[in-house]
Amino acid sequence: MEKKNLLADKFMTSAKFSQEVEKIALTNLDMNYIDAVLHLCDINEIEVDSVSKLISKPLKEKLKCEAQKLNFIKKTSRAKLMLV
User: Fold this and answer.
1) Contacts with 22 (C-beta within 8 Å, 6 or more apart), sequence order
2) Distances in whole angstroms, Cα of residue 32 to Cα of each of 5, 24, 43, 81
3) What is the pLDDT confidence band of residue 10, given thresholds at 50, 70 and 90?
4) pLDDT tens across 25-76, in order?
5) Is the pTM here over 0.85, yes or no?
6) Where are the domains of the chain?
7) Among 2, 38, 47, 49, which is 20 to 30 Å from 18 by CA?
8) Phi, psi (5° rounding) for residue 7?
């Protein structure tokens, strides 16, 4: 049973990754969601290019909204998700 838990801790699931990003973004007020993703990738030695499959839909929407605010991507006319 203990080996199973150790193995599960080593692998990053979409839910686990998104929860960790949320936790980092909410506890570090100077860090936005984009920075939190990069920080999590850095500390877990995950390639940024491969992280897209680990991002949940709600987190993806938050990242998109943040990127639009920062003018990283073009703004859309669709309704925006409010960031808390």
Assistant:
1) 36, 59
2) 30, 9, 16, 15
3) low
4) 999 989 999 999 999 999 989 899 999 999 999 999 999 999 999 999 888 7
5) no
6) 2-69
7) 2
8) -65, -40
Q: CB under 8 Å to 61, separation ≥6 — which residues?
A: 81
Question: Letter for the amino acid at 78?
Answer: R
- Give the mean model confidence (pLDDT) for residues 5-19: 73
Alpha carbon distances (Å) from 79 to 51, 59, 63, 66, 75: 26, 16, 14, 14, 11
**84 pLDDT exceeds 60?**
no
Report the SS3 class of residue 82: coil
Which DSSP letter does residue 78 get? S
Residue where the block lists tokens 């897209």: 52
Tokens 């995950």 map to which residue? 46
For residue 6, the surrounding DSSP H or E stretch is helix 2-10
